[in-house]
Amino acid sequence: MKDTLSKEALLEARQLISPHIHQTPVLQSRALNKISGAELFFKCENFQKTGSFKARGATHAVLRLSDEEKKRGVATHSSGNHGQALAWAAQKLGIPCHVVMPENAPEVKIAAVRNYGAEVHLCAPNLPAREAGLKAVQDEFGSVFIPPYNHPNIIAGQSTAAAELLDEIPDLDLIITPVGGGGLLAGTALSTHYFAERCQVIAGEPEGANDAFLSFYSGERVKEHQSQTIADGLLTTLGEINFPIIQELVSDIITVSETEIIEALKLIYQRLKIVVEPSSAVAFAAILQQAERYENRRIGIILSGGNVDLAKLPF
Known about the structure:
Radius of gyration: 18 Å
Number of helices: 13
Shape: globular
CATH topology of the largest domain: Rossmann fold
Structural class: alpha/beta
Order of helices and strands: HEHEHHEHEHEHEHEHEHHEHHE
Strand content: 15-25%
Strand order of the largest sheet: 1-2-10-7-8-9
């Protein structure tokens, strides 16, 4: 692994960001254990600053900026959670922040980015439009690009969620995360590789946004993909830095239907009594789909965030 993603680098990232973020709780439910046939440990990143795990990576990336870069400010493109996290991290350090967002992003996420003090630039809901919008912002303001997932400092920051989980529940057989761009999955895979080698890492992905699944099993990263899913946080395509880490250290990627995502989401609301967004339910949906395969295993599930538009809940 590169020095920026070494065991020492991940330990340093955790120490660096720990004063700024929450160490989120791990919840259990006897009812969900019974339904799944496994012993489940839910790492609740919906209780993280800004409502998702993205605060970890954004905080780490911003803290790593030079003084000159901080003066120029930061910019990114995001469907919501990374934009919120970067806006919040930038606000804490008193630096300017610009976020290019697709016009179909949930209104709750657009409003949150603005509430954290960032300037929002809306664009068409596709990657070329997002990249063009970002370039325009950088040309005008000289901002430093902080990508949502495709950067070592982001991956190292995201790795801290699994590191905390493994500290609290050290004898897990398996950790599962949702996968979109792959920052959380790559970071989780690295933490597990360094700190709990016996533990496997897998991912859940919507059937309607299955580029990571296709990339993983073809060996060729899918660069463009038309995605459609209720799990709006997972619409991005897999990052080029993230992909080889996932290839090397992840055991499987399981795709789930929209019906399975909604059913898993309902169970989390009903049994854990917490608010999560559909993307968070994807990993749990994968375990339910493969219940016989994972029966009697001790499984950590990272619930990625809770920034849901309550007016658009599917139940």
